[in-house]
Write a structure and sequence with these properties.
Layout: H1 2-17, E1 32-36, E2 39-42, H2 43-55, H3 64-84, H4 91-108, H5 112-119, H6 123-148, H7 155-163, E3 172-173, E4 176-184, H8 190-208, H9 214-221, E5 233-237, H10 245-252, E6 263-265, E7 268-278, E8 281-289, H11 295-314, H12 319-326, H13 330-333, H14 357-360, E9 372-375, E10 381-392, E11 395-396, H15 399-426, E12 432-434, H16 442-447, E13 452-453
Parallel strand pairs: 12-13
Antiparallel strand pairs: 1-2, 1-12, 3-11, 4-10, 5-8, 6-7, 7-8, 9-10
Helix pairs in contact: 1-3, 3-6, 4-5, 4-6, 7-15
Amino acid sequence: MVVMKRILILVLMLSAAVVGHAQSAKLLADKIVAIVGDKIVLKSDITNYIDDMKRQGNELAPNSECFLLEKMMQDKALVLQAEKDSLPISEEEVEAELDQRIRYFIMQYGGKEAFEQIAGRTIYQVKEDFRKSIREGRLARSMKDKIVELVKITPNEVRDYYNKIPVDSLPFYETELVIGQVVIHPKAGRELEKFVQDELSDYRKQIEAGIRSFETLARLYSEDPGSKQNGGRYEMNRNEKTWDPDFKNAAFRLKEGQVSPVIKSKFGYHIIQMVSRNGDDAVIRHILRVPQLQDEDIQIAKVKLDSVRTKLLSGSMGFGEAVDKYSDDQNSKFTAGIITGQSGNFVTIDELDKSIIPYLNKLKVGEISEPFEYKDEQEKQAVRIIYLQARTEPHRENLRDDYDRIAIRAMEEKKERVIEKWFINKLPTYYIMVDKDYQQCESLKVTFPNFVTK
């Protein structure tokens, strides 16, 4: 059990490091350090993972190599069974995960060129290097999901799990709240919208006439804090879901060097320049201008939200329905308007933005605030109403107040036991070899008692 817990803790570390593996430009004298069935683990797999963890500032235990090898060998066993059971893994899923991880590291290292320099390989080569490992990772996860798919937990099992926890080990929770919100972004008047459109059209004319460069105008006038200082520059991929669809589509219609007409996105108005493009990857620049709001624009949004609040108080509309019909906050639309934190739907005061606190303090559970102004995560002016759905007092964890959280932990522990039992039954059926340099690893002796050394 302890071994399994340690292994599962490493899963996230390893998944974060997979693409980071490609950053090692050092050529290693490689060798096979383990075999499970017809699957092999290389010395470089372990060395590069550990090097990546160190580069990221993680402190590793002296026996981390043993635990890493154990995890890799278990994944190989899961992959073998997944292949035997013909679990479906599409190449589209593999490609999507590869693209996602590559994009993450491109952003981390400041661009495609910087990443390729650090990796010592082209993006294409990195993807080919890791296609097999990504595919095997997905197979291992799918097999693990299949093993535990029928696992259920009863209230008695949750109670037994809880009763085994020493009282002084039970977590202490500060006051936690469940808060819903309906958010409206006020719309600027038509005259101000036309004003910024005309400004952007003028910038486009200056660029095309060679009067000033796109980069200079972006530094001077763009209202996008994320790209203003680097001249409006972004690297993007056509398959990324994070981009505003209208913005992305407009960008990928451009030829290299071309500047778009004025386009509208959920952030405001833009002009976009295609700097360079390679398939679905592109480097672009843009200038964002946001129409300035007037007091009457904000007042219109408040009036609209006040009418929503009236419907909620009268019971003629449910809160989830109000979120679906009226809220402009895309994040909370997926949670029926609930603001989420580290503990899911429950949030602490520290996790909330400060503008909400004065209005929250006036509410009792079940009450809805009057509309009030605030600035969202993108610093956009917005108006919202909040609904205090629940509030807990500071307390030590207990079954009455925290059953769901305890049940989740109990369920995870039960799944660990099921997976552990699966390994006990399956591993003796595979040929398993471990290099003599690792035969001193005690955890390997427990998990793979039938391994041979070479």
